[in-house]
Amino acid sequence: MPLSSVLGTDLPHKSQHNDTHAPQAVKKAKLIKLISVRLKEAALDSPSFRASTNYQCSLLDQIEQWIDGLIRALRRYPQQYSDFRDVNSVVLGQLIPDLLKFSVVGEETTMNVLKTAKGRLETLWNVGLDDMELNDTEVIELLSQFLKKDIKSYKDIRRNFEYLQSKYDSLLNKFSSQSKTREPSALREDAFQLYEVRQSYLAAAFDICVENSKFQQALDYMLIKFTQLSLQGKSNYDEKYNSKLEAWAKAGSKSTKALLQDMKQSRAQIEKATALQYAPSRELRDHNIALINVNELIDTHASSPESNEKHAWLYMKTSVGKPSRQVWVRRWVFVKNGIFGLLSLSPSRTFVQETDKIGVLLANIRYAPDEDRRFCFEVKTIDSTIVFQAESLVDLKSWLTVFSVEKQKALDAADSEVGKYAFGRYPPLLQEFASTSLTSVDIELTSTKIENNNNSSESHTLLASTNLSKLIDGSEGTEFQFSSSSVGEFRDPDLNPPMVTARSKLALVAHAFLAPTSIPTAVTANIWGSVNWGIYYMNDSGDSFYGFKQDNFSENNLTSLTKKKNFPPYYPAHLMNYDIQLKSLFEASIDPQELVVAHFTCLWCLNQTQELSGRCFLTVNCAYFYLNSTGFISLSKKPITEFVAVDVMAEKDWEVIKVYGVDGLSMKGRLFMQDGKLLQKKFDLLINNVARTKPKTQAEIIPLIEAMHSEEAAKNTESSVKSSDTDDAPSKKYDELNSFQPFTGVPASGSKMKTNYQNEFELTKVANFRAPAKAVFHILYGDHSSLARDSIALIDTDQFNISPWFKEGEKLTRVLDYKIELSRNMISGFSRHDSSVDNRSIQTVEELVDNKYYRIQEVRDAVQVLGGSRFSAIRKIIIIETDAKSCKVLFYTKFNFTKGKTSRLITKFFSKITKNFQIKEINSLVDQLRHCVAGLGTHGQVIKAIRTYGNLSQSDVDYRPKDDMVFDLTLQILFKYYVRYWLYCLAKGILNAGHHISDLVSRFVLSVTMNKLLIALLALSVVFNFFLMGRSTYAYWSTKNSAKLVKSVSEQILTTSMDRAISLDDMEILTSFNFNSSSGCFKKFISSLDDGSLHLGELREPRHQIALKRNDLLIQLKILEKVEMELVAGNYKSFVISELNLCKVSFEELQVDNEALSSYCDSCSRDYDSIVNGLLF
Description:
alpha+beta, Alpha-D-Glucose-1,6-Bisphosphate, Chain A, domain 4, ten-stranded mixed β-sheet, nine-stranded antiparallel β-sheet, 29 helices, 29 strands, transmembrane helix, Sip3_PH
């Protein structure tokens, strides 16, 4: 069955989070693609599906036996418990016999000791006996109901599935072994009968997939209820823990019910696709092998994706036993990326095995018409010949085409990786997954050691399979066993893989030794299915939401079997197993050197009504999300750089975790069994680290996270009452990453965090912001912040230079060089003959306590007043934390004066003007700062501020500032500036006055009552009526006068007529009578005609009448001529059309071959084209 029938059946789910604190008012819903690997594999009836179903059925039988045994034991337990209690009473009664009371031992000491011991033992045994007492009735009822309802329902569906599977396999064997001489019509009838049984079998396969999901959830709920009933009321019963367990079970059950509807939708899509793909042909020729044309079996123009790879069942010809007998067995065959191979079920039929994989360039494929079965083809290699049988002619053509296309691709890319692997043969790398079938072909195709020349006579590769035990501890020939300790590299995985077989957990561990590959193997078949749906999922997830990138991915990596580099010594043992799980699920999407630093499980909230159970793996750089709920799988990878904050809120029975991105809430989930606050600390640590200028390495981060873990574990063992000294304890070593250190060199300890400088400065402004002090600090002084430039009055933004931060002693300093832009007209008399004035500001971070206190001093260039005294403006900005999410900013200013020739009064006057500039700049800075803070939202403000406005990067090169500059402030500059300023104020005042007037008018209109408004409208209507009446009267008399004028003009026009007359020339008339034109009399007559003599007046009028009649006659003749032409043209057009119809009948229907007729018809066609184009008529 082509993969196209199931590749397009994934369900997109809306992931929509509503967060009232998010800065965006409207959020787009993100789509999460869910794939049901079980349903896809069921549609293909793959070996992974069969192995998984068989394994789960065997597990159900074991569970049923366990419950049956448990019920029998529980029914015997009350009597056994009563007997044990009686025995305990007897033992306690014999502790102090009567003989010891008769002065054999000391009454005062020894007897008191014995009595005390007896009392304590009685208390201890009573507590133990009470804990051992079970509510057997409720427990037995719970287990019995599970047997009667859930297990019985599953067994009924399984019984139907096994019956239809057996019927389908039997009918398929019978159909495939049909004689080649059987009538095509009978074969077609058998094909449709097989199709109907297959449809029923696939429906049963889908039923058991759905029932598996239901049964798993029911089993989880039953086991949790069983533990609650067993422990409830006992001395060590944890009410809070069990309440969380119950809440988790109910949430999982609710999630399952919601997803079952989606499973039905997915099932319907896949059933429809498979029905179309498996439908047999109705053409008899497709069932008649005698009509097969070998030259048409391979589609040489195939270019669709289906022709690049194929996965399906085929019958393989082989032999078994001694003496050998020929049999046909089913094998799952695949061709992909220049490699073909076989997968099969293990002898126990509970997991998938594999044979060697062979490059297509080592094989010759041809149609095999000589076999005793229909639709056979032969794959011949140097070492062996394999005969396969396809199910139909279409299937046969598909296989031959895929082989042909892959061989051609490998030849065209002989120097590439695909071409290199297409020349080799590759054994199963792990013996645990090698085929153990005893047929002759399976044995021949399963090797333990192969030498390839890699398409080169000089390069050889020796490939040998081995077992996991040898790779792990060097012991060969022993079966691999998982570590029994709670920590270790190869513990029993606690992951629920997409497909569950008997060796799924072993396949997860195997990924520690195998490099990712796109070629199907038994290892991937026991996790992701026979087609490896994980590869298709990640390749199809091009949306940035999924974030998959496979730069290190090898298309055909089949030779890598070396134990990966040992975990570094700092890597904790309890994370090793989870690192292996991550690489098993995401394969090439994760860097091999990237290690898991934290993990947790939760219910991820897709939207308001749906949740999916899943696991998150955290590395230093990325977060990987694996969701698996009721068989639906989703993978997602997000860089830590996309996160800005994590919030955890405690509810009664769970904790809600919210992960925020730059655009707001990114993901939301519910935690039941994890410590949310500890997880938040780990998340914050990773988020804060990637925001640093120089992030800490993996080797530095992992010990910090483990320190958090150890500290939290120690807290849990301490008493709930803690001394106040504990609360004030110094911060731990990982606290430096809980808050960023954007630079070093500024002391953060021993600070007094002084805020009152009014004895030296004047407090200009105090502003409060709903943002952490650190966020405001980076908004103001980050490398990408423009506030330092935009808040300076009259600055020329095109000429602004800012230096990097550099050290001056123990303080950090940077220099801002810029120009003050002034109007050319205002500075026409300036000595520099320029409109701009150079200026400089020096900013120094004087003191810092990260996240709490920042003190920055800014010093402007000195201003020289009238060429005499100088003064410089100094600004001190203090940012101090008021609480965790807000801060206060204090602005102090002062002026330093130097003695000079200018009088003190003038200097103070100029400094007051400069102070006004300072106040305006500070107000502008505060307004812009509020706008920037509002843009950060309410979550992850520090991270957003650093990513948006930059860190404070230091320069490693010594910075040498330029010489100090002095700005000479003259009266001319001030005068022209204030003239311009006053004009600006005047224009602003006029605009404001207009605004106020319009505002007053609008208020007046809104304030009048309805009656006054109606009266005003009536008065306005009267005015308009008078106005329109005058206009109407004027229009009436104007129209009347115009009509009189038009009438008089038209009367004049009507009295004038125009006639056309056609006259003959007098000379032509007379010369036609043979008059002597040279005679004097004739000449005089002609001249009299030209002069218009009066005696000839009687001649002109008759001739004029004759000329008028001549014009009328010519017009009539022209009309008649036109009518006649139209008549003839219409008849000719009809004639041409009829001739063309006759030509068409002659050539197309009668098949006439006559050259003269062809020439005649061509002329008719040309005439018709001329008529249509208007060329003839």
